[in-house]
Write a structure and sequence with these properties.
This protein has about 220 residues and is of the alpha+beta class. The chain contains eight helices and five strands. A hairpin with a 3-residue loop joins β4 and β5. α3 packs antiparallel against α4, α3 packs across α7 and α5 crosses α6. It starts with a helix and ends with a helix.
């Protein structure tokens, strides 16, 4: 049975013990506390849909904590919402290679299988996945052909996607991760959020706000 959004939030609250109502109404959200506007707004990558971007890095422990929650959240988003993850580098060579690893896994079809494993390797096992050599040794441990993966890792397609991600970070003025952006207009701040479930609830409220804006325009 698929989770409804209300039941999904109840599951999160029950498992984490967070004191949070299942959803937050848009009217309860305050600019400067829960969100900031992105000026000028940026068009989404999926025409006709409200796009939610998650800026993250495999090198960020908080991103690892959010990852387990945001996956089921994204699975039950309404049909008019598109979710996309954007790995960041912030100009760090190590994080740029982690972004390359993300896109190479996506192109190889192994992202679903190995995404959580990368987080665990980097943030929990403290494994060095910051160089091509260390990445290829790790993917070989996961049953991948390192020679074929090396070609993906330094492919034009991955180069392009990393460059596009870096451009999004600059355009959206992202200076910390994890950060969620809704509809190219609203950046989740969550200055008083009590945990990741509440951050996702704020994103829900912003999605509703974006939907109303689109309906009235």
């Amino acid at each position: 049975m698929s989770l409804t959004r209300r039941r999904f939030h109840r599951v999160l609250l029950g498992s984490l013990g967070a004191a949070l109502v299942p959803t937050l109404a848009s009217a309860d959200l305050l600019e400067g506390r829960d969100w900031r506007p992105l000026a000028p707004p940026r068009p989404g990558g999926v025409p006709g849909k409200i796009e939610v971007l998650e800026f993250f890095s495999y090198g960020c422990p908080h991103c690892a904590d959010l990852n387990a929650l945001i996956k089921p959240w994204a699975m039950v988003l309404p049909a008019d919402v598109a979710f996309r993850r954007v790995p960041v580098s912030f100009g760090r060579a190590a994080w740029a290679n982690l972004a390359r690893l993300y896109f190479a896994l996506e192109l190889s079809g192994d992202l679903g299988r190995l995404d959580e494993a990368v987080f665990n390797a980097v943030t929990r096992e403290r494994r060095n996945l910051y160089t091509d050599k260390s990445i290829l040794a790790w993917v070989q441990d996961q049953g991948k052909d390192p020679t074929a993966f090396a070609a993906l890792l330094r492919s034009f397609a991955v180069d392009t996607q990393v460059a596009q991600s870096d451009a999004l970070v600059r355009d959206f003025k992202i200076d910390a991760v994890p950060t969620l952006v809704v509809d190219g207009r609203y950046v989740v701040l969550a200055r008083e959020a009590k945990g990741f479930p509440e951050i996702l609830a704020i994103a829900d409220g912003l999605i509703a706000m974006a939907r109303r804006r689109a309906a009235s325009s």
